[in-house]
Amino acid sequence: GEIILHTKEFDKRGNISSIEELNKLQSSIKENKQNKYEYTYKDNNYLLQTKYIKELHLYLFVEVNKQEYMNDLNEMFYLNLLISIVVTLLTILIIIHFINIYQNRLEKIAHEDALTGLDNRRKFNDDIEAMFENFYRGNIESLTLVILDIDNFKQVNDSFGHLTGDKVLIRFAEILKESLRKSDFVARWGGEEFSILLINSSEDEAQHIAEKIRFKIKEDTVLNKLLNKSVTASFGIGKLKNNESIDAFISKVDSALYEAKSTGKDKIIYA
Predict the structure, then answer these.
(1) Which phi-psi region, left, alpha or beta, contains residue 42 (left: φ > 0; alpha: ψ -120 to 50)?
(2) What is the H or E stretch that residue 244 is in?
(3) Which CA distances in Å does 122 have to 52, 111, 113?
(4) Structural contact between residues 154 and 143, judged by C-beta atoms closer than 8 angstroms
């Protein structure tokens, strides 16, 4: 029963015969089997495993203070739990971040014209509807729509090819973006047609903006170099009137554009 090899704490208890709870287990321990016990010593609970080592004629005692062991386990458990929560939160944040990136990309694809980088017709229609509601609520004073069409664009594609035609459209879009205010909306309406929604512009201001764009297109050196000649465009302009529907608003501007195209092109017609 003498403890001959020990940790400092185990040694303090001396011979196992002097330890009341261990003393009760001696007969069971000496059955030369591998056993497991749980006992109490000085208000501490211990987990004990014993094994007889035949070659040495010794009993190996492996024990642990249950409270210390549980404290260590709890500490490790909560540490692992905290790490798991942090990793989970980081994972969720990363997933949300990438979902937002892909969602923004999808929205951009849905709303942007791939060639020119301008808004597409669907997005422009949404903008018109939103501004239409703001107009009738009194949040904005006026709405002016401009629809413009590149003159003789089919001849550009037929004579120079679609690649050059695409370059013309891209440059055309750049000129529009450079010529407008941040508050205005511009989109590729379809094919070689573009649309502009001017916010709080008077009739004179709208005509001035359209004329400035018409002049810049005609005198643009990039376009002239691409086609070895001037590029022109025809414009239809109209201001939203009280009690006028969106369809009627767009239709009258489209008719003004058609008149500009059919009466010589390279001109601006106000509806």
Answers:
(1) left
(2) none
(3) 84, 7, 10
(4) no
With tokens 């029963």, the residue in question is 1
Average pLDDT in the chain: 88
Coil/strand/helix, residue 74? helix
Phi and psi for 42 in degrees, rounded to 5?
50, 50
Q: What is the pLDDT of residue 73?
A: 82
pTM above 0.90, yes or no: no
Q: How far is CA 64 from the centre of its chain?
A: 53
Provide the H-helix boundaries in 33-152: 66-111, 121-137
Q: Which residues contact 201 (CB under 8 A, 6 or more apart)?
A: 142, 144, 209
3-state SS class at 60: strand
Question: How many CA atoms lie less than 13 Å away from 258 in the CB half-sphere?
Answer: 6
The catalytic position among 174, 192, 211, 219 is: 192
Establish whether 203 is a catalytic residue. Answer: no
Q: Which is nearest to 37 in space by CA: 18, 50, 51?
A: 50
259 token code pair: 């008149």
Taking only the tens place, the pLDDT of each residue in 106-135 is 877 778 998 999 999 999 999 999 999 999
Strand segments, DSSP code E, in 200-264 are 233-239
Contacts of 51 (CB under 8 A, 6+ apart): 34, 59, 60, 62
